[in-house]
Amino acid sequence: MSPRLISFSDSPAEPEAFAPAADRVLSGNPQQIALNHYEGAGGRLLSGEWRCEPGAWRLVYDEDEYEFCQILEGHIRLTDAAGVAREFHAGDAFVIEAGFRGVWETIRYCRKHYVICRIA
User: Fold this and answer.
1) 65 part of a folded domain
2) Which of 7, 10, 14, 79 measures 20 to 30 Å from 38, CA to CA?
3) Residue 45 has what pLDDT?
4) What is the mean pLDDT of each run of 10 residues along the chain (120 residues)?
C-alpha cells in the first residue's frame, strides 16, 4: 500500500471522552475529549485533536513518550517538577519531552492538535 495523506477534516474519528484519574486531579473538573485522527507505526504514533475543560492535574509522561502540541484555542499552564511554569495560548506550539512530570492546568477551555510519538 502506498503512503497516504491524512486530513483531519476528512477523518471519521469519533470523540472519546475521558478524564485524569481522580487521584491526579488537583482542581476543577478537567473533562477531556480526544479525536484520534491517525494511528500509525503499530500504535507508536498518534495525532488528532484534544479538548479540555478547566482544571489541573498531575501529569506523568512515559519514558518513551513525546508530544508535540499546537494550541488552537484557550489558555493552559504547564509546571514542571522543579516548579518552573510556562503558559501557552492559541497559536503557541511546544514539545513535552519523554519522562516529563509536572502539572497541566487548563485555565480557559483548551483545544489543541497533538502528535504523540513513542520511541520504544
Assistant:
1) yes
2) 79
3) 96
4) 85 95 97 96 95 98 98 98 98 98 98 96
Any domain includes 94: yes
Whole-structure pTM value: 0.92
Cell of 24: 491526579
Would you list the DSSP string of 61-92? Answer: --TTEEEEEEEEEEEEEEEETTS-EEEEETT-
Q: How far is 95 from 118, CA to CA, in rounded Å?
A: 13
* 83 within some domain: yes
Q: How many domains does the chain have?
A: 1
Residue 52 C-alpha cell reads as 479540555
Q: Cβ(96)–Cβ(69) under 8 Å?
A: yes
d(CA 110, CA 36): 16
Structural domain of 77: 39-118
